[in-house]
């Protein structure tokens, strides 16, 4: 019998250890998955980009740089006598042009072509030129390519005469003629996609005596048909902010309807909880029950943003008809609504974590917890918890509002809420949520295991009705947070690939809709249109468990019996009166 109990205790300890190890491993997965997927996505995106652009890049540049002489070279240059570093040109795209240019600039014939940028920067510029092939390589803009590509080679690879220390670079004159003339539309589109195009004002004036670059804006084919969810600006199609959808229209409507329904249920339950809590303020407004009310407030904020968004999505999120311009200039509601959403999400997990920590302390250290309560230290603990929980999310929110590179912006089409860049969102939301949630569940497992051991010793559950309700709240928040953490982690891991595919699609549609060429399949299936709706229904589940905590079911049952008895008496009296 003794050995049986000993083996039983050993087995239970092994099970506990396994549970704790699994918990740590489970909450390590989002971090590991993020870093691994980031590497694979970068490699795959590069391979896709290279395969797409290399298919016709050589043909276009060969057509652009035929055998030419100095009298027909289509650009000017600026000669500057200055000491500079020389690096041998290691690329291939601009090799023909740079060789011809070096001869026309009276440099030594037959010598290697040297430029004023390092090999690392050369490779970066080569990649940029390959990407720009999507714009300039279009047959519609063939006239633009004839002058833009030589100019870009000049700008990105300024020639260097190593013996004299002379630099030959692109000029302001050519830059203005190209950017405001023959390539104006392509130039504007390239700037919207953040390509490395020069600022004309920063370039030197030409000091060559002549130029063969035509200053006329050659006519470009204007017969372009855009999709219904794109708008025509000059001769370019851009996605409409109020119409573009990353999933099919049916799926989008189901997703929006589900999200609004779930948010409405969560909001209604939360409002009822607040009303009942005010009525029972003596119990709900004291430590630690008030932490549960703070969670309710966060849920009200999250649900309200979803409902307000549904009521005026286009007006609230679209600063322009063009989606590309909107992405460059997000609305105030987008930025501050996204900041409030972000803050409330982290707060929700923080309140939960603090409540679990208090529960853990009460179960494992009951004498110390009772002593703190007798000495009145709980009010200081509550004040510390409130201050820390209110301050912890602030740095990330402030960075998202002030730093343009990671600012709150649209992350789904049609818009639902705004978020920071994927990398910033990982470090400011997913990572802290993962750590707090993992630590909380770790403590919860130990606390519940301790309760189980005590119940076996004292032959009782050791839990009051209120504690059972709190455990139910802990469980519902854990389920919601785990689901959201897994879903958002998988989404964040795919963001680079999604953005690359979406940019490629926008570039394709920019020159007119071609169903055979421009495919939506590369980005349509990257997000599940229903997963976020499930997450909002789980928020409703959290609201329901909190409402269950507030409601006094015993009083309701007693009140219900009283009402039934009173109604029965009234009916009996009326029946007797009728019979008389």
From TrEMBL:
Domain FZ: 81-229
Keywords in alphabetical order: Disulfide bond, Membrane, Transmembrane, Transmembrane helix
Signal peptide coordinates: none
Entry's transmembrane regions: 14-36, 260-278, 290-311, 340-360, 380-404, 424-449, 470-493, 530-551
Name of the protein: FZ domain-containing protein
């Amino acid at each position: 019998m003794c050995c049986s109990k000993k083996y039983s205790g050993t087995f239970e300890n092994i099970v506990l250890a396994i549970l704790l190890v699994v918990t740590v491993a489970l909450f390590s997965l989002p971090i590991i998955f993020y870093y691994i997927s980031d590497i694979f996505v970068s490699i795959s995106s590069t391979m896709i980009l290279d395969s797409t652009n290399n298919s016709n890049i050589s043909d276009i540049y060969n057509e652009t740089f035929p055998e030419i002489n100095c009298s027909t070279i289509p650009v000017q240059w600026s000669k500057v006598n200055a000491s500079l570093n020389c690096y041998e040109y290691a690329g291939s795209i601009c090799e023909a042009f740079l060789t011809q240019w070096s001869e026309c600039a009276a440099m030594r014939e037959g010598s290697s072509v040297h430029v004023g940028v390092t090999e690392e920067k050369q490779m970066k510029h080569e990649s940029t030129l390959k990407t720009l092939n999507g714009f300039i390589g279009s047959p519609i803009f063939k006239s633009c390519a004839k002058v833009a590509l030589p100019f870009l080679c000049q700008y990105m690879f300024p020639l260097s005469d190593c013996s004299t220390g002379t630099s030959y670079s692109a000029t302001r004159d050519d830059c203005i003629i190209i950017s405001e003339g023959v390539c104006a539309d392509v130039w504007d589109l390239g700037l919207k996609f953040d390509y490395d195009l020069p600022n004309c004002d920063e370039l030197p004036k030409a000091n060559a005596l002549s130029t063969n670059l035509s200053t006329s804006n050659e006519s470009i084919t204007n017969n372009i048909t855009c999709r219904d969810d794109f708008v025509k600006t000059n001769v370019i199609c851009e996605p409409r902010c109020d119409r573009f959808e990353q999933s099919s229209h049916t799926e989008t409507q189901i997703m929006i309807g589900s999200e609004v329904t779930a948010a409405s249920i969560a909001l209604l339950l939360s409002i009822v909880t607040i009303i009942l809590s005010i009525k029972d303020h003596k119990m709900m407004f004291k430590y630690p029950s008030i932490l549960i009310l703070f969670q309710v407030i966060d849920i009200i904020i999250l649900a309200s943003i979803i409902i307000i968004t549904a009521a005026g999505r286009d007006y609230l999120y679209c600063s322009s008809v063009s989606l590309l311009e909107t992405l460059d200039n997000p609305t105030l509601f987008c930025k501050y609504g996204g900041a409030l959403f972000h803050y409330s999400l982290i707060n929700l997990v923080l309140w939960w974590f603090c409540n679990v920590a208090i529960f853990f302390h009460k179960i494992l250290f009951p004498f110390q917890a009772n002593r703190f309560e007798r000495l009145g230290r709980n009010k200081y603990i509550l004040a510390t918890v409130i201050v820390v929980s209110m301050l912890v999310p602030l740095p990330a929110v402030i960075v998202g509002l002030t730093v343009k590179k990671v600012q709150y912006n649209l992350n789904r089409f049609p818009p639902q809420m705004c978020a920071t860049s994927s990398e910033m969102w990982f470090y400011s939301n997913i990572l802290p949520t993962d750590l707090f949630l993992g630590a909380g569940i770790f403590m919860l497992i130990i606390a519940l295991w301790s309760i189980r051991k005590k119940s076996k010793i004292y032959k009782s559950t050791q839990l009051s009705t209120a504690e059972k309700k709190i455990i139910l709240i802990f469980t519902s928040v854990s389920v919601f947070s785990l689901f959201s953490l897994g879903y958002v982690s998988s989404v964040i891991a795919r963001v680079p690939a999604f953005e690359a595919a979406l940019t490629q699609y926008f570039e394709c549609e920019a020159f007119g809709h071609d169903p055979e060429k421009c495919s939506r399949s590369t980005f349509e299936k990257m997000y599940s249109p229903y997963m976020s709706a499930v997450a909002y229904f789980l928020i409703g589940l959290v609201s329901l468990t909190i409402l269950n905590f507030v409601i006094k079911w015993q009083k309701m049952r007693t009140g219900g019996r009283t009402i039934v008895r009173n109604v029965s008496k009234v009916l009996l009296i009326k029946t007797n009166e009728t019979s008389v």
